[in-house]
Amino acid sequence: MRLTPGPARDRDLDLDTVDLFDLDLYGTGDPHPVWDVMRAKAPLHHQVLPDGREFWSVTRYEDVCRVLGDHREFTSERGTVPTHLGQDDVAAGVLLTSTDPPRHTEVRRPLGSKLTARAVKSWEDSIRRSVTRFLEPALDGEVFDLAEKALLLPAIVTGPLLGIPEKDWEELVQLTAMVAAPSDPHFQLGSEAATLAISHHELVGYVTEWVKDRRDSGAEDDSLLHHLMSVRPGGAPLSDQEIALDGYSILLGANVTTPHTVSGTVQALIEWPEQFGKAQADPTLIPNLVEEGLRWTSAACNFMRYATADVPVAGGVIPAGAAVVAWIGSANRDAAQFADPHTFDITRPNAKRQIAFGFGPHFCIGAPLARLTLRVFFEELLHRFDSLDLAGEPEHLRSYFISGMTHLPVAAQKRLIP
Questions:
Q1: 10 SS3 class
Q2: Domains present along the chain, CATH in parentheses
Q3: What share of the chain is helix, strand, coil (3-state, %, to 5)?
Q4: Contact indicator for 367, 118 with CB cutoff of 8 Å
Q5: Can you tell me whether residue 402 is helix, strand or coil?
Q6: Model pLDDT for residues 260-311, shown as the tens digit of each residue
Q7: Residue closest to 257 by CA, chosen among 338, 158, 340, 330
Q8: How confident is the model over 123-170, as pLDDT tens digits?
């Protein structure tokens, strides 16, 4: 998906002809002008797919927050990603991402205590060492494919925290990418359905074996997956199946979005070199650079919910039982919330209002760790490199769920530090 929109489209664009599930719109096209028109003319939009599946869309910031924030009117317990549209999630009520409060809160709260900003602060030195090691190959001046390499970055950072051995990182990254973009040729195995089935089976199987090995050995550690084994929603321990499904959810959350936030923000710094210069001259701007990068990339492009009753939204009504897709990528470019939204500006005063981590009960549990990782990454990048340039054409992910890139060739000029 292009992050810097091309020329504005005719505002008389016929939205009835737009297919928001058209993979070409994201792989080689540009949905931002479409979302601009939708926010202005059809903030509640209905689409019927050729196979008969249908969904509603909300694109304005306030409406997206409402849909994601109110689990009583918009449930997560039939599925939360558009790749599941038309087939209810078989793990609903068990899988953390497909569970509403109060159970969602009972499982999430003890995990969240391990991932507060204060808790993850102790990992900063380890993360910095990992980021430094990651950036070293780019220092020799050769072309460095940031998007391709960045896929492994979250595993390098979070693998030890999750309790995942290094020998398994690459395989798990590939599997989580298959879940996120099952139609992208880099990750697809057979059909989209087959890719999803294979990746789901392998990831759940991996966590299941991980739990079994821990139980059989009696080994204990301070990893997040091990901590999951001690969670007791309602006073009862999770079953091994519940641990496996929630572990699967944690692996997805850890691996899927951060690489694309990294590569998309770096591309923005290349396209807006004055912003690169500002951040390098004033490192105190880096936390806001991270927030603007999150807004700009909106790597989790959308989430889906189901209306529990007829719900009035944006001048229309979403009927009971209907699927509704909340387009985060559009909300984060809503001019009613962000002035001049298609400009990348690391001094934007309200950048932290971005909702790239979602909103409401399912706000990303790993947000503090992601923010820390991104801050450290850009601190090291700006400290070590004097400039960055594109060394080839970016290649965008073929997905309407995750906004990202599979290739971003860059050439970096090493910074001469006295």
A1: coil
A2: 15-414 (1.10.630.10)
A3: 50, 10, 40
A4: no
A5: strand
A6: 999 999 999 999 999 999 999 999 999 999 999 999 999 999 999 999 999 9
A7: 158
A8: 999 999 999 999 999 888 889 999 999 999 999 888 888 888 899 999
